[in-house]
Write a structure and sequence with these properties.
8-stranded antiparallel β-barrel; elongated; Lipocalin; disordered N terminus; 2 domains
Length: 274
C-alpha cells in the first residue's frame, strides 16, 4: 500500500514539474512567456475573416515566447498595453492598415470573444470601416491586415504604433508676380512626426519641410524647401478642425520666401479647393 501511495505521489510530483515547461525554459533564457508570443508571417493576413482564421492556425502553433525587449517596446504603446492585459482566457485580435497598401495608420482591437473567429471578424470589420472612409475621402487604396491574435504578435513593435498617415496639401507659391499652384500628398517621416515630404499629383517629390507645434499646440512654426531648394522659407502653421474619421487635422500655413510667400491649406479641407 505504501508503495502504491509513493508511486502516485511521484506521478503527481512529476506532473507538477512538467505542467509548465515553457516557464522553466523562459526563466533560464530571460524570456517572459506569460505576456506575449511572436511568430512571423510570410504574407499579410488581409483575407476574409473565416479564411484568415484558418490560415493563421499553422503559424500559431509555431509561435515562441517574445523577448523581453520586444515586450518592453509594445508595453510602451498604451493601445497595445491595455489590449495585452485583457482577459487571456478569451479571444482577442488587432487589425491595422497594411503599410504596403497605403501610407496611413489605423488600428482596431477586439477582446472578450468566445472564439478566435469572432474576435478576428470584429477587429477586421472595425479596421475595414476606417480604411473605407479613408479610401473614399482621400482616394487611397488602404487595406487592413491581422497583426496580433491572443497575445501573439506577427510584426515588429513599430507596426503597432499610431501615426498620422499622408494627407492632402494645396499650396500657392507667389514670387516675382508669378503664382504657381502645387497640390499633392504630404507624408510625415521620423519617429517624432515632425519632418515631412510633399509629393505632387504627378508622383514627384517636390518639397521637404519640418513642423514644430510646440508640444501639441494649435499654432507652430514651419520651414519648407521646394524644387531643390530654389524656393524656401519659414513661417507659421495653424491647426484647425480635427477629422475623427480620417484621424488628421485641417489647417493653414503662411511661409515667407526671399521674393514672396507660400500659402498652404492642408488636411481634408484641401480637397475642397479646386
Amino acid at each position: 500500500m505504501r508503495k502504491i501511495i509513493f508511486v502516485l505521489f511521484g506521478v503527481v510530483l512529476l506532473s507538477g514539474c512538467v505542467s509548465n515547461p515553457v516557464n522553466q525554459l523562459t526563466s533560464t533564457l530571460g524570456i517572459d512567456s506569460a505576456e506575449a508570443y511572436r511568430v512571423s508571417l510570410p504574407y499579410s493576413m488581409n483575407d476574409q475573416a473565416w479564411n484568415t482564421n484558418d490560415l493563421i492556425k499553422p503559424y500559431m502553433r509555431k509561435r515562441k515566447p517574445a523577448q523581453s525587449g520586444f515586450i518592453n517596446d509594445i508595453r510602451n504603446i498604451k493601445f497595445v498595453d491595455r489590449w495585452l492585459d485583457r482577459d487571456s482566457n478569451k479571444s482577442k485580435a488587432i487589425f491595422a492598415i497594411d503599410p504596403q497598401s497605403c501610407k496611413d495608420s489605423s488600428r482596431y482591437a477586439s477582446w472578450n470573444f468566445r472564439t478566435d473567429l469572432a474576435a478576428i471578424t470584429r477587429a477586421k470589420d472595425g479596421c475595414d470601416k476606417t480604411a473605407q472612409k479613408t479610401n473614399e475621402q482621400l482616394g487611397k487604396a488602404c487595406k487592413c491586415r491581422l497583426v496580433a491574435l491572443n497575445d501573439t504578435f506577427f510584426y515588429n513593435a513599430n507596426t503597432y504604433k499610431q501615426h498620422t498617415g499622408s494627407f492632402p496639401w494645396v499650396m500657392e507659391v507667389v514670387e516675382s508676380d508669378q503664382t504657381i499652384k502645387i497640390s499633392g500628398m504630404v507624408s510625415l517621416v521620423g519617429d517624432k512626426q515632425e519632418r515631412f515630404n510633399l509629393v505632387n499629383d504627378s508622383g514627384r517629390n517636390v518639397c521637404s519641410g519640418r513642423f514644430d507645434f510646440n508640444k501639441g499646440g494649435s499654432k507652430g512654426d514651419i520651414s519648407l524647401s521646394c524644387f531643390d531648394d530654389k524656393i524656401n522659407g519659414d513661417g507659421e502653421v495653424l491647426r484647425a478642425e480635427y477629422n475623427k474619421d480620417l484621424r488628421m487635422y485641417s489647417g493653414t500655413a503662411l511661409i515667407k520666401t526671399k521674393k514672396g510667400e507660400m500659402r498652404v491649406v492642408y488636411g481634408p479641407n484641401a480637397l475642397k479647393i479646386k
